Amino acid sequence: MRSPAERLRAEIRTAAAAAHARTGMPDLPFSRYRRFADDGNRLAYETPYFERRAHVLALAAEALTDPAAPTDDLADALWSVCDEYTWALPAHDLHATALGRGMEQCLDLFAALTAQMLAETVAVCGDRLDARVATRVREHVDRRVLSLLADDERLLPWEGWAHNWAAVCAGASGLAALALWQRGPRLDRLLGRCRRAMETFLSGYGDDGGCAEGVGYWVFGFSHFVYFAEELGQHTGEDLLSRPKVAAIARFPGAVHLGGGLFPAFSDAEERPRIPAGLAHLLTERCGAHFPPEAVDSGMPRDWGDLSRTLRWADGGEPLRGPAPAPVHLPDLAWVVDAVSDVAFAAKGGHNDEPHNHNDLGHFILAAHGEMLLTDLGAGEYQKGYFDAPTRYDFLHNASRGHSVPYIDGREQAYGARHTATVLRHEVHEPPTRESTSRSTSHAPTRSTASPACTAHSPGAAAHASCSSSTTSTSPGRCRTRRCSSAASNLNSPHAMGCCGRRTRRAPPCACPRTARPRSSRARP
pTM score, two decimals? Predict the structure, then answer.
């Protein structure tokens, strides 16, 4: 059987052949760029944007895997990317406007990822790439991304965000600098900021290693933490993977796997995220983590970091399958998961101001034989207003009415960190039975003064609710009963909070690997 890296090389050959057959890349005209500001549409610009990145990725991957590959088409692609008005997405303009910069110096997720891909491609190609192209790439990576961290002491918004943005932006920027720069004061300053951003990223996890953003966002954020950590270690000898909590974070996907490559799609997560094979191999070796083989992906990825590290780290066999699943309680995240048999159950507590928050305290899902029976809608289409606190819960996917939680006197749950659900007791019995009791403070007060999708109300009398579900396994002699009870008091946050936890009337536009809509009927994560 071919290794994951060998299978990926075959995919690269196919993708590169298709890229050579195309006549250039799609244009990014102003008429598409303006759509987000004009009517909230993200796909009009982001679809051709990511087609362009996929074109560059295929040609760069060919150069990485085949030293004899021609580089003329790659040179044209790199030159064209340097011509772009901005490497960021229009929806992320906060990261320029907050600092009084133009969009050329908007350092968002995808500007950082672009810088990493271009920088490492130039480093890999060396003399095979025309010197004029290589010089221009170096200049643009420096001006658009690296100088903002090395030469300007003002903090970027994402440097204080304890979720995937900090890891992706800092990790990709740091990797670009390590690829292009020699040791010196500028590199030292930049790496110092990247290290601090990584500490911020890790602070968003509890000791249980659980990721409130779900497994898809775990992949996006934690992978770039790992890629940066390994490269930094080669340059400095330090080991970020030895930090507290890292091993627990690495084990998160294996802990919450529901079977058949299915994972809980709480918040803006997706049901079937893919785990890059290189990441899975590295974390198995370094952290003792295990990943379900059906969720490990050795196909053509959409991210240069995933591709290059799978080629580097997954040239052996498949990752080893982990031990048999056991019921899981993640106390910091307040999730419970039971996937011991062919029937899998998961429920969540937490609070209603988590990253990519949905007002879904007490929500539960049920799956059987790798298919979802009682599901979660996951993310809606990412569009204008989706990440703005005043309008976020107008979207069905984010509001209580889009989840398996009770209405109380016609009221939905309220938004804000004050509204919580905690697991009071978690027991595992033989034959395997688990009971979880939750207490929540999530519902709007008795007297409502807002629309059904809003959460600003006055204090009133306490409300109580309970819900229960039971399932019987199809396995002979194995019966499970699961019950969840909750009590809600009438508290409500006096502030509008963004999806990234910032106390603001307008939340940061996105905290995503998913740019417009999640998978299945949706677009690129």
Answer: 0.82
